Amino acid sequence: MRRTDKRHMLALLPLLVSIRLLASGPDLSSLQSNLERVLSTGRAPRGEVGLALIHVESDARLAIHGGQRFPMASVYKLPIAIELLTQLSQDTLVPDHQVFIGPSDIRACCTLSRHHPNGGVMLSVGELLELMIVESDNTAADAVLKLVGGPAVVERRMRALGLDGINVNRYEGDIAFEMDGVLNPPPQAQRTLELERRLISEVPPAALRAARARYTSDPRDTATPADMALLLARLQLGKLLPRAYTEVLLDLMARAKTGPKRLKALLPPDTIVAHKTGTTDVVINDVGIITLPDDSALRGHLVLAVFTMNGRNVAEMQQTIAKLSGAAFEFFTGKPLPPPVKPKPAPKKKRRKEE
Predict the structure, then answer these.
(1) pTM as predicted
(2) Cα–Cα distances in Å, from 68 out to 50, 143, 150, 217, 323?
(3) CATH number of the CATH domain containing 93
(4) Among residues 172, 157, 88, which one has the least CA distance to residue 126?
């Protein structure tokens, strides 16, 4: 064999490996062991963790507690977005339709409650969608959920798609009151951000703990990791929405500003991760689609849905998600993770001379 032929064969090796794995389906048993090792090591209590993984192109799958229900928290904004984009694709709604956000529409977190705590702002459907996914804005989520017809409409969409493991039952405002132990919240028209914060601050610690326990065992607004991973895989394949609307959602998810210490934390900085996080005091979630590098042992897209609850603290639950994502990334790329990038020290401020 000539030297040039050898070089060409070497260049083709990663592609040949990928083709062989795709043809037979990769054996995920060693990855399953690695993921279980992540969950069994470190300080306890780690809390409850469920995950599901799908390699989109080969349909190789694995799960750990994949059929268990977990509170979605803000991950539930993803099925809401799919319902909205479905209606937009069917011309039931239009992207530039304007929605007025009044004082009773404002929810704690994030952009809108900071900049418009008393409401009084008009936003388009497209702007609300972007705030809901990129910023995980709760005000935007409730506005969109109301616009599409309410929780029952979104849940019917999930059932029509065969996703029985995804429940959407309440508005963000209602979830917040129940999760924080406010037993008799005011009617929707009387709610304000200031009133919400005051009522929650008055809940005694014991009542708050009881409410959190109810929240993590309530089947409403929950998902199984397996069905959430399946939703993401179908989204990537273009089986949920027309292509143009699929690209809109994937782009927004790739620009999400939340959760930098979760799925993305240990991956190379240039890795594209289209994801949606969920966060409460007792729940830390991240679900997403990781684009694998072109020189991976197995190329394509890796779906990973990780739900955690009742862990020791937020930092440890986030670290668990990061380690699970890192282990999966190493398996599919066939390469060790790069060393973490150390943050640059902040420049020292010059001392002002006394006058």
Answers:
(1) 0.88
(2) 7, 29, 25, 11, 21
(3) 3.40.710.10
(4) 88
